[in-house]
Fold each of these.
Amino acid sequence: MKAINSINNIPLHYARLVNHPYGTLGEQRNFSIDSNFHEVLKDAFDEVFANCPLGKPEVVTTAGIFVNKPGQHGHGTAFDLDAVFWKDKTLITTNFIHQKELYLGIESFLRKHFGIVLNYYYRGHEDHWHLDTSVSVDYNESSKSETLYLQMVLKYIYGKPVIIDGLSGPQTRNYTNEVFNRLNINTPITTKANYLKFLDITGKVAFKLSEEKTTPLQLLENLETVINQLPAANKHVVKGAFNTFVDNDETATWLNSVTNHHDLDSVIDHVLAS
Ligand SMILES: [Zn+2]
């Protein structure tokens, strides 16, 4: 066990305090960490930020590494990543809905290094990624957290209308095979080499998409996602107002004139050719 306050010269901050609340830059701190796990984190950060179009960040906030409780945190072999701050841009993990491409780009590369990654859709992890190496890097259909990730990228990166429920079934398998074919990756996804290739290409595609301008249609989709997460009592009336807006003749005319999503195919071709 050793103490660190940065990883690859990126300062590690803590922002879960009354005067440094979640979502702020927080303050630099020392964190106890297992030496081997530290090496994995260094490699992971190296790869994430070498690929990320925003480059190396100025600060990463963490909810903790060593925490005196049972589980991987108790050994200093788990990392809770709250937010990443670049000079002109910030990714706070609770903002997943509004920064899906950047979020999933980062997560794709993290998954190449950590067998366990718990994300936004994994209960209790809306405000941080939990990363640890207690299991090896691969894809198991029975893993809820891995299937959640797979369904999230199928839907939000590759545009497949899959249900995100963490349960693998015929629908998830079919869309996965479609995407693997498009990316020229051998199936099955459960073979480690195939899975690693999928993570790598998906990370690059997601990062490329994150650079493109957000269209009004995407903003509407985000709004719909947020509405669907509302408590039932409020959801009904907000959803009604939303549908009335979208179904209005003039709104529909305007929406039809807006260019649809980014050109996914050309992004994929670009990544495959590079
Ligand atoms: Zn954790």
Amino acid sequence: MVGDQPTNGRQVLRASSVFKSYGDTAALQGVTLEVRAGESLAVMGPSGCGKSTLLQTLAGITLPNAGEVTYAGQEGVQNLVLLDDETRAALRAREFGFVFQQGLLLDELNAAENVAVPLMVDRLSPSDAIARAGQLLAQVGLGGLDDRRIGQLSGGQAQRIAIARAIVSNASVVFADEPTGALDSHTAGDVLELLLASTVRQHRALVMVTHDESVARRCSRIARMSDGRVISDVRVTS
Ligand SMILES: Nc1ncnc2c1ncn2[C@@H]1O[C@H](COP(=O)(O)OP(=O)(O)OP(=O)(O)O)[C@@H](O)[C@H]1O
Ligand SMILES: [Mg+2]
């Protein structure tokens, strides 16, 4: 069980007193949270409480109105809030991976091309990127499906491709927003297992929004939110 593993890795991400509003809506109202290497953090709470906003803020996709988000990566410790858009986008492409409910895969590309996108962004040659993508597809149990269009895959297969894409460029943090939300419980279990195996067990950090208690209990920590605040943050001990 992942929950049994110690989560005393080095701190990779820290949100400090983060506030974010959209017009009159206060989505985050002073969130302080840290994420360590090798841990899996489930973020839970009712619809609209700010989970996706927190995930996107930790990932440097959304900028907070106040507060800091520090990330300890290849360039040392940086406050993502202070980086310009281009530098932040490059850091995201290089060091973060993303898996969302609908996968956000590109329908017009095949499986291997989708996985290869982050490598090409990272300036690997297309042929090297496709070759590396093929290895990753085999690793997530989809060997031989390299040429398959996304529309010709099952939901579970598409999520495996999203996971392969998230980890292909050696991301040190993988962000997942309801990655199993659209899957039946059996497929969801398989996808979750793959997500944990490809992140936590390789000393990456996983930050995952989920509505499913059984999914959250397989993570090493659960943070619960309400009205833009973290109201509890506990280790999973079972
Ligand atoms: N781009 C946006 N523009 C305006 N309001 C937004 C935007 N994104 C989020 N919000 C608002 O901020 C609040 C928090 O939204 P968020 O998406 O973080 O919630 P959530 O916890 O992820 O909900 P769910 O479980 O439904 O996905 C909500 O009231 C939402 O309506
Ligand atoms: Mg959400």
